[in-house]
Amino acid sequence: MKPFNREKFLAGEPAVTRDGRKVIDWHYFKDRESDNRLVYITTERIDANFVNDRGFYGTVSESKHDLFMEEKEVELWIK
User: Fold this and answer.
1) Are 79 and 19 in contact (CB under 8 A)?
2) Residues 39-54: pLDDT tens digits?
3) Would you state the pLDDT for residue 14?
């Protein structure tokens, strides 16, 4: 899994959660106190979570809500 990159995500690159749910909608709230106010919704159910640069905000250990950049599938054809 590729590490979550907030700048790339905000620029339009797709992201998924640790358990494979694709992020389909999001909103980024920037305020004076924090820049960790990215709220997202996934494909399989509605989730709204605050995240930091690693993923799910407020956890020290791994969480199924952690975000990762979506890996692009590449097809290779050999002749």
Assistant:
1) no
2) 778 877 766 666 655 5
3) 92
Global confidence as pTM: 0.69
Q: Are 40 and 47 in contact (CB under 8 A)?
A: yes
Residue 67 to residues 32, 61, 75, 77, 78, Cα–Cα distance (Å) = 24, 13, 25, 31, 34
Q: Which of 18-22, 41-45, 54-58, 72-76 has the highest mean pLDDT?
A: 18-22
Question: Which residue, 52, 43, 64, is CA-closest to 6?
Answer: 52
Q: How far is CA 32 from CA 9, 19, 27, 74, in A?
A: 21, 32, 17, 41
